């Protein structure tokens, strides 16, 4: 359960930092009127949406941290046989990186109000994300063809489940992205899309990060890294 | 004390009111069925959850009939009994208490108490309810599925949960259960995002965190915990569903089932337990923290006294929330996990007792030197203190690893968790309904019926669960379809069991008084006015009762003080609403 | 008034129930008297706290009940009081935890001279395996389980050849000798529980867990399954017969003769 505890620890640190700024130590009965420590809440929609996304990412983070914890526990059982990763995964990784970059650029152009670049960026992001998903399916088919079936070993099962869970999150993101793209085509000016594009970009970067994490675990690099740390410590 | 002079009406200047686009219902269907108004959604959640609660209550009757009068009711065979405990336990914990506290009270109270017009994502909020309803329907459908519902116990431990020796294991029961849980979690996540983000982003002008009523603190912390803890159950459910439906071996080691060696190997049953309790323990506090918050407000309001040690109460809530993520394996002391974990988890578990105890002290110190009005909500709050302290203290037995060894998996555990997370939170729910019903409907619940309901429920539940501890101490295991003849169980224990069952029937029947009161008072209750309890918090200061869509009419409230200005020396009245600028309102101005 | 009185009655009634109820733990038959002592300490501390809190609540309800002209005292917090209460609680918790952890340390540390035995659970019966003359238990594998090899003993392992197998749920143990029970299950999770021994532990398929205890008096005790294991859960019973050393040895000899006879043809 190490990875989920590390994740929770990080959230706890953020939470404590935030609470400290909110005057958690003040004595509220001593203040009347609009309190000195009052930090105005920005209830305008962009801030709301951004906070909403952040909290949602914490939930998704918890989900993946738990999957990884389960993986780490299960892999210590003697029947575990690592899966040889299909090479296409590296191509997929590249696609996802490109997708993130494209959305990042799209975000910038939305802020600058460049409609054409924005459209291009969004389309590119969508296309590369689709390429990523198709690549993942290709990887599944290769593995099945090579006899690495879901049921034959838990390492295989974890491969399918982890990539599947991640893929579903990408699909969810694509729905949001698709709606944003539709809005650009309906002629909504770039300035008004700034928030949605920004949110998509944040989500994409997050999914890229999760993917890199999963990849490091599936390849066993994370395990090797932890072993090295352990040895350095002892 | 600095008295900041301000205008004398507690509303924000027009310019400060953010122009949040409000959804406006146009037809009866969008107003009452597919409503996006948090208050309607709250009522939908509450009614659904109470209905599920009634089903779960009836299931408990059947279980008690079997335990009290074994063999008399032949239709409750072992199969049925295990299905009953499973559905009863799962329904009560997840589909009743979680849904009622967060979906029900959270939706109703958060926007009103922090001075917002609505939740920040009303559409998602609506989806949350309908997803919840779907989850309930899937769960209930398993009663009618071939093979019936799962009988794996609410903990659903594999391998037995998915093998043929358990009801529903190789039929539909377990599948429907897991799917229903997953749907519930998705629905809850949508709701939970709303509760958390609304508190973070939509507080009224002047509503600092430390001015929030403890109810909001409790629901906020619990929602956050639930958002982070439910994924653990989700992960466990996905993996178990794979094991059951697709033949993987996440949790399945080599197994001989009824003489047949199964095609599985290497899986870890303990892995599921870790995942389950990583959710399951915080879940206990997800139910408890809103109850803590609500009971604080009930006590403070009806004792006309500020909650004692408000800051400590907030810190304790947060500390409990954080600590509850590092105690999960206290449910696994005798599970065959690495025994050295016992030292760590016993220590963390007993440390949680300290902030919890502080909360109890502060409740009773609030009563001390108060001006106690024994209204029905206050009675329930007092009963909560008794049952919660009782259940909390027996928790110290079970948390202290070596003491848990003889007691775990006995009726002692059943008595403990019913007292602490069954009876105590339910008493708070009743108290809260008596307290806020006037705001929701504009009418008071009938007082005499309320008192009758209270005494039967409180004394009855105590009589059910207090003696039960001693059966467990003697060694009677839990989840036993029948005790049968055990050499060490004297005949008197069977009499006790029969007594418990009779009381359980009475307590269950007494809930009809409550249901009747809810319905009857809707039309015939005494009109309540806007603030019948003379309370300080914002929900009592709405311009209209029940609050209309958008809550505040044209002007948003502004908050000038914390939520607990009761009996302030020198003030004109014994309460100062949060939106009242000065302790001495100029004559002729109203404060709601 | 009535409310305060009822609260007092609840506190008094609970204590009275505790003192006079005929339902109490079974007379102990193992070395785990320390567990009982820890429970007693916990009962004292928690009982005192429960009574104190309920009585204080009753007092407040009576003394500060609403009367015309009463005004509540305005006092947001009292640092000193809260600090003292925290410290006292901390001391109380430590007073329960410290002996608890100490005894837990003993509970999981098996003495050197303990005899290994194996307890095997399957839906819904108990089987036992005792080491033969070599004093050691042989290897097992769940995948070897079959009608004529219900425990999945390895035929290759010489240590397994002389193991004494008892099916049908009667375990015999010599009094006064520490026993290390290795717990194993071939299907679902069960739990070995003998109330008089105070010991309890899950049998988990796919792994071996253990407990140890020393029977301290002779007699027959019931084995219960304390982990839900399917529809037969409440019928999964067995017995432990604790005997004097000499009686036990005689029984063991007899069993060994029989299990050799039974295993011999299958071993070919
Ligand atoms: C007066 C009301 C209630 C009665 C009479 C009652 C009775 C019972 C009984 C007889 C059992 C089975 C005990 C066993 O054989 O192991 C049980 C189990 C359980 N109850 Fe209740 N109950 C009540 C209310 C509640 C409430 C409000 C909750 C909410 C937390 C709850 C949660 C549970 C849980 C989680 C289980 C365990 C199920 C399992 O072992 O898998 N009960 N209850
Ligand atoms: Cu727990
Ligand atoms: Cu069992």
- Name the CATH superfamily classification of chain B: Cytochrome c oxidase-like, subunit I domain
What summary fits the major beta sheet of chain A?
Answer: none
As a percent range, the share of helical residues of chain A equals over 70%
Task: Kindly estimate the percentage of residues of chain A that lie in beta strands according to DSSP.
Answer: under 5%
Structural class of chain B: mainly alpha
Structural domain tally of chain B: 1
Number of domains of chain A: 1
Spatial shape of chain A: flat
Oligomer: heterotrimer
Poorly predicted tracts of residues of chain B: 1-10, 14-19, 586-592
Organism (chain B): Microvirga makkahensis
GO molecular function, one term (chain B): oxidoreductase activity
Family (chain B): Belongs to the heme-copper respiratory oxidase family.
Catalytic activity (chain B): 4 Fe(II)-[cytochrome c] + O2 + 8 H(+)(in) = 4 Fe(III)-[cytochrome c] + 2 H2O + 4 H(+)(out)
Give an overview in words.
- The complex is a heterotrimer of chains A (234), B (592) and C (268).
- Chain A is mainly alpha-helical.
- Chain A has helices spanning 2-21, 45-74, 88-112, 115-145, 154-185, 190-218, 221-233.
- Helices cover 77% and strands 0% of the residues of chain A.
- The longest helix of chain A has 32 residues, at 154-185.
- Chain B has 14 helices and two strands, in the order ααααααββαααααααα.
- A two-stranded antiparallel ribbon of chain B has the order 1-2.
- Chain C has two domains: 2-66 and 76-108, no CATH class; 115-267, Sandwich (Immunoglobulin-like).
- Chain C has five helices and ten strands.
- Chain C has a five-stranded mixed beta sheet with strand order 3-2-1-5-8. In chain C, strands 4-10-9-6-7 form a five-stranded mixed beta sheet.
- In chain C, a hairpin with a 4-residue loop joins strand 6 (190-194) and strand 7 (199-203).
- In chain C, helix 1 (2-20) packs antiparallel against helix 2 (33-63) and helix 2 (33-63) packs antiparallel against helix 3.
- Chain C starts with a helix and ends with a helix.
- The model of chain C is unreliable at 264-268 (pLDDT under 50).
- Chains B and C meet through helix 3, strand 1, helix 8, helix 9 and helix 10 of B and helix 1, helix 2, helix 3, strand 7 and strand 9 of C.
Brief description of this entry?
Chain A is mainly α and 234 residues long. Helices cover 77% and strands 0% of the residues of chain A. The model of chain A has no long low-confidence stretch (mean pLDDT 90).
């Amino acid at each position: 359960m190490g990875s989920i505890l590390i994740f929770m620890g990080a959230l706890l640190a953020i939470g404590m930092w935030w609470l400290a700024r909110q005057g958690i130590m003040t004595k509220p009965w001593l203040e009347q009127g609009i309190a000195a420590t009052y930090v105005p809440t920005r209830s305008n929609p962009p801030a709301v949406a951004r906070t909403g996304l952040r909290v949602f990412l914490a939930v998704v983070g918890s989900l993946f941290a738990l999957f990884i914890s389960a993986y780490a526990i299960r892999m210590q059982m003697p029947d575990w046989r690592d899966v040889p990763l299909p090479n296409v995964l590296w191509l997929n990784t590249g696609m996802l990186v490109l997708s993130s970059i494209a959305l990042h650029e799209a975000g910038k152009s939305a802020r600058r109000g460049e409609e054409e670049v924005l459209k291009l960026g969004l389309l590119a992001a969508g296309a590369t994300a689709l390429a990523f998903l198709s690549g993942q399916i290709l990887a599944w088919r290769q593995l099945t063809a090579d006899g690495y079936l879901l049921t034959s070993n838990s390492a295989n099962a974890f491969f399918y489940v982890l990539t599947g869970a991640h893929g579903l999150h990408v699909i969810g993101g694509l729905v949001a992205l698709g709606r944003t793209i539709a809005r650009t085509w309906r002629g909504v000016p770039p300035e008004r899309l700034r928030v949605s594009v920004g949110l998509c970009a944040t989500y994409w970067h997050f999914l890229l990060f999760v993917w890199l994490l999963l990849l490091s675990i599936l390849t066993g690099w994370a395990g090797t890294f932890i072993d090295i740390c352990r040895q350095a410590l002892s | 004390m600095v008295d900041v002079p301000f205008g004398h009406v507690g509303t924000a200047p027009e310019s400060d009111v953010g122009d949040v686009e409000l959804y406006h219902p146009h037809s009866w269907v969008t107003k009452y069925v597919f409503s996006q108004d948090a208050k309607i959604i709250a009522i939908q959640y509450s009614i659904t959850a109470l209905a599920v609660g009634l089903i779960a209550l009836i299931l408990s009757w059947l279980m008690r009939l079997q335990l009290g009068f074994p063999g008399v009711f032949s239709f409750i065979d072992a199969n049925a009994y295990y299905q009953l405990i499973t559905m009863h336990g799962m329904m009560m914990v997840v589909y009743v208490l979680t849904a009622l506290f967060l979906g029900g009270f959270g939706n109703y109270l958060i926007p009103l108490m922090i001075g917002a017009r609505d939740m920040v994502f009303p559409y998602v909020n609506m989806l949350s309810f309908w997803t919840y309803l779907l989850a309930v329907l899937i769960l209930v459908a398993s009663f009618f599925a071939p093979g019936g519902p799962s009988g794996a116990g609410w903990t659903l431990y594999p391998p037995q949960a998915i093998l043929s020796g358990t009801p529903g294991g190789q039929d539909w029961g377990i599948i429907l259960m897991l799917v229903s849980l997953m749907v519930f979690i998705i629905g809850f996540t949508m709701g939970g995002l709303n509760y958390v983000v609304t508190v973070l982003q939509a507080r009224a002008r002047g509503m600092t965190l430390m001015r929030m009523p403890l109810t909001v603190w409790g629901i906020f912390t619990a929602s956050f915990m639930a958002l982070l803890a439910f994924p653990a159950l989700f992960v466990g459910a996905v993996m178990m569903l794979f094991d059951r439906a697709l033949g993987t071996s996440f949790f399945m080691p080599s197994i001989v089932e009824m003489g047949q060696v199964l095609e599985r190997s290497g899986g870890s049953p303990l892995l599921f337990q870790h995942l389950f309790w990583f959710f399951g323990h915080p879940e206990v506090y997800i139910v408890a923290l809103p109850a803590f918050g609500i009971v604080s407000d009930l006590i403070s309001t009806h004792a006309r006294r500020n909650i004692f040690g408000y800051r400590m109460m907030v810190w304790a809530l947060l500390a409990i929330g954080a600590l509850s993520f590092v105690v999960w394996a206290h449910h696994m002391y005798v599970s065959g996990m690495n025994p050295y974990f016992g030292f760590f988890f016993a220590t963390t578990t007993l440390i949680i007792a300290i902030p919890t105890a502080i909360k109890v002290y502060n409740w009773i110190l609030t009563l001390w030197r108060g001006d106690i009005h024994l209204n029905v909500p206050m009675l329930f709050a007092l009963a909560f203190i008794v049952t919660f302290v009782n259940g909390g203290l027996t928790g110290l037995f079970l948390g202290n690893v070596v003491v848990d060894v003889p007691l775990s998996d006995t009726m002692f555990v059943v008595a403990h968790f019913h007292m602490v997370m069954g009876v105590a939170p339910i008493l708070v729910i009743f108290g809260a309904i008596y307290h806020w019903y006037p705001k929701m409907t504009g009418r008071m619940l009938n007082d005499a019926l309320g008192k009758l309901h209270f005494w039967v429920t409180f004394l009855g539940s105590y009589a059910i669960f207090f003696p039960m501890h001693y059966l467990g101490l003697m060694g009677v295991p839990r989840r036993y379809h029948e005790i049968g003849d055990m050499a060490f169980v004297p005949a008197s224990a069977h009499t006790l069991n029969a007594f418990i069952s009779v009381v359980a029937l009475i307590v269950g029947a007494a809930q009809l008084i409550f249901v009747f009161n809810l319905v009857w008072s809707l039309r015939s209750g005494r009109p309540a006015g806007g603030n019948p309890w003379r309370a300080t918090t914002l929900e009592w200061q709405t311009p209209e009762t029940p609050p209309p869509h958008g809550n505040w009419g044209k002007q948003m409230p502004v908050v000038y003080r914390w939520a607990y200005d009761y009996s302030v020396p020198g003030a004109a009245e014994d309460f100062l609403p949060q939106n009242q600028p000065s302790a001495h309102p100029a004559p002729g101005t109203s404060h709601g | 008034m009535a409310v305060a009185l009822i609260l007092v009655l609840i506190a008094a009634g609970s204590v009275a129930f505790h003192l006079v109820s005929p339902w109490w733990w079974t007379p102990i038959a193992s070395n785990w008297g320390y567990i009982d002592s820890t429970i007693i300490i916990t009962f004292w501390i928690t009982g005192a706290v429960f009574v104190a809190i309920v009585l204080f609540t009753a007092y407040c309800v009576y003394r500060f009940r609403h009367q015309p002209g009463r005004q509540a005292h305005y006092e947001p917090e009292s640092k000193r009081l809260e600090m003292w209460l925290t410290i006292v609680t901390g001391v109380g918790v430590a007073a329960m935890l410290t002996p608890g952890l100490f005894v837990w340390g003993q509970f999981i540390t098996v003495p050197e001279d303990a005899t290994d035995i194996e307890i095997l659970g399957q839906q819904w019966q108990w089987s036992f395996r005792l080491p033969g003359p070599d004093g050691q238990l042989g290897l097992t594998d769940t995948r070897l389980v079959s009608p004529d090899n219900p425990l999945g003993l390895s035929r290759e392992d010489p240590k397994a050849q002389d193991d004494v197998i008892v099916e049908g749920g009667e375990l015999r143990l010599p009094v006064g000798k520490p026993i290390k029970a290795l717990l194993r299950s071939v299907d679902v999770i069960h739990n070995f529980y003998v109330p008089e021994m105070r010991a309890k532990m899950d049998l988990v398929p796919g792994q071996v867990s253990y407990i140890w205890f020393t029977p301290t008096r002779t007699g027959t005790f019931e084995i219960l399954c304390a982990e839900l294991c399917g529809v037969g859960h409440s019928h999964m019973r067995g017995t432990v017969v604790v005997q004097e050393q000499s009686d036990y040895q005689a029984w063991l000899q007899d069993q060994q003769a029989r299990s050799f006879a039974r295993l011999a043809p299958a071993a070919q």
